Amino acid sequence: MFNISGIEPTFNKKEDNSEVINGSLQLLLVTISPTAMWNESCGEQLQDFTRPEKIVIGVMLAIITAVTVMGNTLVVIAVCVVKKLRQPSNYLLVSLAVADLSVAIVVMPFVIVTDLTGGKWLFGEVFCNIFIGMDVMCCTASIMTLCVISVDRYLGITRPLTYPARQNGQLMAKMILGVWLVSASITLPPFCGWAKNVHTAGVCLISQDFGYTIYSTAVAFYIPMLVMLVMYYKIFRAARKSGAKHRFTDLSRRERLETVANEALRMQGLKPPGVAEECAALSRLLTRERRNISIFKREQKAATTLGVIVGVFAVCWLPFFILSTARPFICGVECSCVPIWLERTLLWLGYANSLMNPFIYAFFNRDLRSTYRDLLRCRYRNINRRLSAVGVHEALKV
């Protein structure tokens, strides 16, 4: 026996040199372009932005983030400062604002950096998992809170006397806790070994496991969307029935009743027979008419508000969740084959829902509008007194 490991056969030298050269070229390509294998396997390419494009994109996304922070901060401050808004029914608005504010503070900045690098994740595998958990948790909490708000509005309109959550702060707090626990049920599985997030060669992607994808998208979007549509339909139907029953559009009838009542009150001093009874009957009729008008207006406002909320919510999130549901079945579970520009555009369209929520509620809520105006003008003194005076003035106009 003898050792031949140090002997170099001359007949294989040329072949070995070519293998060394090929190996060196492959190593050089990987060094120059670390996403080469990722692009080849997934069909996904990083975006190559010029400096002016990066500036424009960065400024636009920074403005979206800043406005989202400002709007949702105003909601939290308004409900905490103004006594008239400090009601159990508005706790859901605070929970929604906190979820949207969390999206703007702990999620959007990292997405902006990733977008400016063309879609490459720069923060490592450990923080990739943390980031995905925060993103899923906050966005799901926002969507689930919108769902609970729609149910709360429906029950508050159709069962004003038997629905206790609006008067019970503890019950409303339990509902909010349930929202965040459901959101956690979607966030935790990747940390518990059910489905692993994707992090390879600059990619940070939520787990593409088929079962987890169906579960997460159904709980985070499709079920809340279905509930919101059902609640909107029921409120809209209740408003139509109320309008058909009371016929409030006949303003001349109300004017005639008020004229007769005023004439009866004027003649009451003369005390002719039967005037007092007639006056009392007309007063009861007017009171019932005003109460019916108030109920009808509240139902109409609830239907309009919820319709706008559902519409904006669907426009913002539906394209993204359709893409998220279909992606693992099209691309497989190892990566994403969706173009970066399409994925990021639909993602930011979903984030825009967090920007719009505080302004939608302010548009339909006079108290929130007045509070926003006072806070933005730094008029903190006597803000509760001014809001109470406005409420009394509006009540006298009805």
UniProtKB/TrEMBL annotation:
Question: What is a single molecular function from GO for this protein?
Answer: G protein-coupled serotonin receptor activity
Where the protein is mainly located, per its record? membrane
Q: Key word Transmembrane present in the record?
A: yes
The lineage's top-level taxon is: Eukaryota
- Please give the Pfam families that the UniProt record associates with this protein: 7tm_1
Cell compartments where the protein resides? Cell membrane
Gene3D superfamilies given in the database record: Rhodopsin 7-helix transmembrane proteins
- State the GO CC annotations: plasma membrane; synapse
Domain G-protein coupled receptors family 1 profile, first and last residues per copy: 71-361
Which CDD domains did the record assign? Answer: 7tmA_5-HT7
- The UniProt record lists the keyword Flavoprotein: no
Example GO biological process: smooth muscle contraction
The family classification in the record reads: Belongs to the G-protein coupled receptor 1 family.
The protein here is known as 5-hydroxytryptamine receptor 7
Q: Which gene encodes it?
A: htr7c
